[in-house]
Amino acid sequence: MTTLLITGATIIDGVADKPLTDSAILIDGGRIKAIGHREALDVAPHVRTLDLAGKFVIPGLMNANVHLLVNASLETLLRFEGRYEALIEEAAQVALKAGMTTVFDTWGPRRALINVRDRIESGETVGSRIRCAGNIIGFDGPFSPDFFGKAAEIASSWFVDRVNAAWVENSGRHLMWMTPEQVGAEVSRYIERGIDFVKYGATEHGAMAAGAFLQFSERTQQAIVEAGRAAGRTVQAHSTTVEGLRMSIEAGCDLITHCNMTGPVPIPVETLDLFERTQCGAVIFPVTEAGLAHVKGAVSDLEWTMWSAGDKNARRLIGSGAPILLGNDGGVFAKELLREPWLKATWNGMPEQEALGRLATGHFAWLRAMEEKGMPAMDLLHAATRNIARAYKLDTDLGTLEVGKIADMVVLDKDPLEAADHYRSIHAVIKGGVSVDLDALPERPLLTAELAPPLEEEANFKRFLVHGTRLPGCPSCISGGH
């Protein structure tokens, strides 16, 4: 690794209350060797110097909750069967191009994620640094009622089982029948397969009751946390109710995913106090005002009450004393999926500028949403960097610009402390002391590639029923839809 001297920029290191001006950063061996006035640094002759006058340098952005293979639809998993690692690698490069030098994948196919993680770590391929949980403990695979159960009615049982097994292995819904001790033993076995942290379902994923059912008892949740601790792993929970949230914090979780989403019921004051006392990380799913307007007009009244409560929770969490973490379920969606009319009637159908769940841009929408809700500018930076590193116990190496830490940083054209939208003004990304060739990413576009041009036959294709005016007849039998 080469030595690099960065000069001229305003440095927002994530430690000091104010930016550092008239300072330089010396990088050696992929880590920060020194920060200070240029004249005071011990710099060898002919060191490569990067003059960033007028720019702003911040720590590499992080994302506490992504899904590098979120597009787990039947069409995608059939089309790319045997190439899931290529999709994950593409997504890791999309994340890196968007300024995220480290991402935490909280649900996906364990072996494929680990293989890509290790190739990036060794330098064999480029991409955002990956830490992964594999499956969510207690959930079944993509082709189950927990996610996309309809696929099991269409695809062969051979393919359905093959896909579900790639995600679940020994960590699925069958654990709900077991004693706490048995569940803890199964979690320990799953950890031995190489995952970086543990994520479990405190509540179900909406398959039966919109997320209201508790997935595991308090004793079982404690057994899962203890199994993770014994193996030196952080533990987090998926929670969608106020009781699930309380139980997860009391079980000793390090962070809770989308903790502001508690159904139609706001988080009680005593649970907000519990966040502050334990310093459990609060991964929030905020939506911009424009995004909320779309959701209100697109979803059912039941769903809207949940989003409305989630918005109130996000605002209250800002002043609660809980460490707030940026996370957005970010993933790469296939272009053909984004064209589907039904998608617009979901939270993933928000206009692109507001869409929280996009891997390439959703973190920018997150920052603007939290700015709109009153989160101070420096706290926004901490939520996207330092707080995540601390929650995952990686702050010795990551999260701030300090001597001895890995040299991950983002160079911005505009001051992020002036406006959250300025995080979009990425000038350069440096990961491990090496400048990233942003124009080259992703190297092998798959889901990000343009759709194939129309077939010759499509010009002559006549639909049996066209979109628009319905034909006379029973409306439940003839919808006129696709």
UniProtKB/TrEMBL annotation:
Gene3D superfamilies reported for this sequence: Metal-dependent hydrolases (3.20.20.140), Urease, subunit C, domain 1 (2.30.40.10)
Residue spans crossing the bilayer: none
Domain of life: Bacteria
Record-annotated Amidohydrolase-related domain positions: 313-434
Protein name: Amidohydrolase family protein
